[in-house]
Amino acid sequence: MAESPNDQLGVLICGHGSRNRLAVEEFAQMVEALRPKLAPMPVEHGYLEFARPILRVGLESLRQQGVTRVLAIPAMLFAAGHAKNDIPSVLNTFTAETGLAIDYGRELGVDRLMVAASGARVRECLESTPSPVPLSETLLVVVGRGSSDPDANSNVAKVTRMLVEGFGFGWGETVYSGVTFPLVEPGLRQLVKLGFRRIVVVPYFLFSGVLVSRIRQHTERVAADHPEVDFLSAGYLGQHPLVVDTFKERVEEVLRGDTAMNCSLCKYRAQVLGFEQDVGRAQESHHHHVEGLAESCTLCVRECTGACQPDGDLIPHEHHHHAGEHHHHPPYPHADHPMGPRTLGAKDFPPKP
User: Strand locations in 16-108, DSSP E?
Assistant: First the structure.
């Protein structure tokens, strides 16, 4: 949409939301750090689920401030279902109801600033724990959130390779915290067989939360079984200044009309190998039932892992919600993979001899 001289611009940062209070606080602090960089435009934020304010509240706040055109940026590392379906559905509904113009930006993505921010966390980890083990004998393991969208999963692997070549690690691998494969614990149990003396585990996450804690727990379990390997845990991205700068760039892209999504590998638009059934799937949000909910909802009792399945849940599954509501997630074709989501609740995988 071309900018009109009469447009009153405002920015909405669209988050996922978390039950973890620290994660919500970190998100809000990041938005505060972004505000002076975008002044005089007002900046608000909102969440899809499990935290307040919800997206609609953030949009209404901007509207009450006289904003006539919103620049909405998904606070997602990669474009999967939340960025491609859930957030646009909420924004489109609000536009239909109020007439407020909303331009949608792109996710943070594979970006030089984001790779540099993650690299800074890796460097901090290495410097905080000096070791005689050279980088050439160190394995870097990047942990992505995990999604039923192979486009998003492949982007995490690209970040891994950028970091491996940037530092000169001996090897690099990618594992995931949920939904897809390989999961953290079974993945690490396979990787120790490569024989590296040191393994650096990097959670490629914006903020703290259930999943980051789970990554550390699973890493500690594997480390306890392999005292001969030096395991290091790097920090998540957090409010690194380069992350804030990336959000600023995304807003500037929308203003320039330069928002280019990667549609060639989007499973909703193209025949992606193994996910052909998802082409043309309706754009709708499955988070309306948990907007703003925190402790009050007893139906969705765990953190969303990208396809809203808790530990050990079978995929596909059906939620039954308030007033008889229900919805059904599309099946993830590799749910039965031996290192995949059906094993997430297993204590030992593969089983110890």
Answer: 43-47, 69-74, 101-104
Least Cα distance to 75 among 122, 126, 31, 21 occurs for 31
Among 60-74, 226-240, 288-302, 336-350, the least confident range: 288-302
Residue-level pLDDT at 343:
55
Domains in the chain, start-ordered, CATH in brackets? 112-233 (3.40.50.1400)
Separation CA 178–CA 308 (nearest Å): 10
**pLDDT given for residue 107 in this prediction:** 96
From 52, 64, 47, 71, select the one nearest 98 (Cα to Cα).
64
Q: Sort 353 into a burial class: Cβ within 10 Å, 0-12 / 13-18 / 19+.
A: exposed
For residue 282, the model assigns a pLDDT of 62
Q: Which residues contact residue 62 at a Cβ distance below 8 angstroms, ignoring those fewer than 6 apart? A: 10, 12, 42, 44, 70, 100
Average pLDDT over residues 158-179: 97
Q: Which two tokens stand for residue 235?
A: 């920090």
Tell me the one-letter amino acid at 106.
R
Tell whether the torsion through CA atoms of 312, 340, 172 and 139 is positive or negative. positive
Q: DSSP characters for 84-141?
A: IIIHHHHHHHHHHHH--EEEE-----S-HHHHHHHHHHHHHHHHHS--SS-GGGEEEE
Helix axes 184-191, 210-225, angle to 10 degrees: 30
Look-up of token digits 């039950």: 19
- Give the model's pLDDT for residue 82: 87
Task: Identify the CA nearest to 179 among candidates 207, 206, 214.
Answer: 214
CB 268 within 8 A of CB 148: no
